[in-house]
Design brief:
The chain is of the alpha/beta class. It has a single domain, classed as FAD/NAD(P)-binding domain (3-Layer(bba) Sandwich). The strands form four sheets. Strands 4, 5, 6, 7, 14, 15, 16, 17 and 18 form a nine-stranded mixed β-sheet that branches. A six-stranded mixed β-sheet has the order 9-2-1-13-20-19, sandwiched between helices. Helix 1 packs parallel to helix 7 and helix 4 crosses helix 10. It binds flavin-adenine dinucleotide. The site of flavin-adenine dinucleotide has 41 residues, from helix 1, strand 14, strand 18 and helix 10.
């Protein structure tokens, strides 16, 4: 192994940490990954696995505040902010409100598009690695709608997407049905984002872990970073209960735990967990061929390893391990409204996966060197797009580490933008 470039310790082995490890290792760094858990209890395996240039609109978008308030009174709603006097939530909410504007959307659209497209290209390269097989498919994603109001909104968005150069086509109900010959749809129409793709996130994570281990990357599990030793604006030691790790460079990921880790480095990086659920269901002979978003219900549908993964809901609240069956039922009940052949039973509680999307208040990720600690790179806050943006983030981290020209502009993603 060539490690002439120095050593890097990455905190967190979710998809952002794993992709950062991949590109840093490829660039010749000696990489160690520190993971507080067992590589399973994070947000990166049970998600919908969609690669989404279509998501050039950040979560903090016009209309989200009014929708959020309306949905707060519906226990089965897809988006929910738990009313609370938690200071972190109040501060996050005020920032979200400030950024939910047309101006922010306009400023974010092209940078987000570029980051997603870079990732998609990198996923195509990753899929060519003989040891990485994660079910990448480039069929696009269908945005299915049932009502005229939502259809009008989506077609308007499709026109913006086309202006941004994305391959997008509005379809009639009949054209949509032609794409799904094995199941009966009940929709008014759809928008086909041909630019999107999907993969199996659990295969991706498992294969990356195996690949990195085989390449000699150290992955330490049950190894929680509890503090840092800093000297003259530099991290000298990364402290865990059993050992203090030394490294030339530190990459701080950590998903929804990022604020907690950042605090140990005396940094304020706002992230709120956006809890979502998913479960697998059988096709019973009614194969769904395209990943789809059920727009009114905000449910994601992904064909995966012969089954279908259904996922959704966004509960913005401090982390907890409770499974809210009302919201899971909200997902289940919406399915036959779009797919007439699918009467999916409510899954048993042990078959329900949940994860915490690491949501920044402005809906943009944090990628870049810290201004305070000069050997620290932050990579987090990817919200509902972490899988889609992971290879681009990892590549940018490796480019930052080498002082190389960056593949895309990251000026909007500063980790200290809310200080
Ligand atoms: C229902 C659902 C569907 C989704 N669908 C999609 C999709 O289709 N496409 C998409 O792009 N995204 C999707 N997402 C979002 C995506 O899953 C996340 O953005 C992504 O997984 C975040 O990755 P991460 O590495 O930042 O965080 P995580 O996966 O949470 O990993 C962070 C890791 O850091 C570790 N850690 C934390 N603190 C410490 C510490 N002190 N020391 C050591 N380790 C630590 C944690 O244990 C964890 O393993 C979905 C999410 C949900 C919930």
């Amino acid at each position: 192994m060539n490690s002439s470039k120095g050593s890097v310790t990455i905190i967190g082995a979710g998809i952002i940490g794993l992709c950062s490890a991949y590109y840093l290792h490829k660039a010749g760094f000696k990489v160690t990954l520190l993971e507080q858990g067992d590589l399973i209890n994070n947000c990166s395996s049970g998600n919908a696995g969609m690669i989404v240039p279509s998501h050039f609109v950040p979560l903090a978008a016009p209309g989200m505040i009014s929708k959020g308030i309306k949905w707060m009174f519906d226990s089965k709603s897809p988006f929910y902010v738990k009313p609370s006097l938690n200071p972190a939530l109040i501060s996050w909410g005020l920032k979200f409100w400030k950024y939910a504007t047309e101006k922010h959307l306009a400023a974010s659209a092209a940078p987000l598009r570029d980051l997603h497209l870079l990732s998609k290209q990198l996923y195509e390269d990753l899929a060519k690695e003989p040891k990485l097989e994660f079910g990448l498919e480039k069929k696009g994603i269908l945005m299915l709608y049932k009502t005229k109001a939502v259809g009008d909104e989506e077609i308007h968005l499709a026109l913006t997407a086309q202006k941004l150069g994305l391959d997008v086509e509005p379809l009639t109900a009949a054209q949509t049905q032609d794409l799904e010959p094995d199941t009966n749809l009940a929709v008014l129409g759809s928008v086909h984002y041909k630019c999107d793709a999907h993969l199996s996130p659990s295969d991706l994570v498992q294969q990356l872990i195996s690949y990195l281990k085989a390449e000699g990357v150290a992955i330490e599990t049950n190894c929680k970073v509890t503090s840092f030793e800093t000297v003259n604006g530099k991290i000298e030691g990364i402290v865990t209960p059993n050992k203090t790790y030394l490294a030339d460079l530190v990459v701080m990921t950590g998903g929804s735990w990022l604020p907690e880790i950042a605090k140990k480095a005396e940094m304020n990086i706002p992230v709120m967990p956006g809890k979502g659920y998913s479960f697998m269901a059988d096709t019973n002979g009614h194969q769904i061929h395209h990943p789809s978003l059920l727009l009114e219900a905000r449910v994601a549908v992904t064909p995966m390893n012969g089954q279908i993964r259904f996922g959704g809901t966004m509960e913005i609240a401090p982390m907890n391990d409770k499974i809210n069956m009302n919201r899971v039922e909200g997902i289940v009940n919406s399915i036959p409204n779009y797919y007439l052949d699918y009467q999916v039973p409510v899954p048993q509680i042990d078959k329900i996966w949940y994860g915490f999307r690491p949501c920044s208040p402005d809906g943009l990720p944090y990628i870049g060197f810290s201004k305070k600690l000069n050997n620290l790179i932050v990579a987090g806050g990817h919200g509902m797009m972490g899988v889609s943006l992971a290879p681009a983030t990892g590549k940018l981290v490796a480019q930052l580490a080498q002082g190389e020209q960056l593949a895309t502009d990251i000026s909007m993603y500063s980790a200290e933008r809310f200080n």
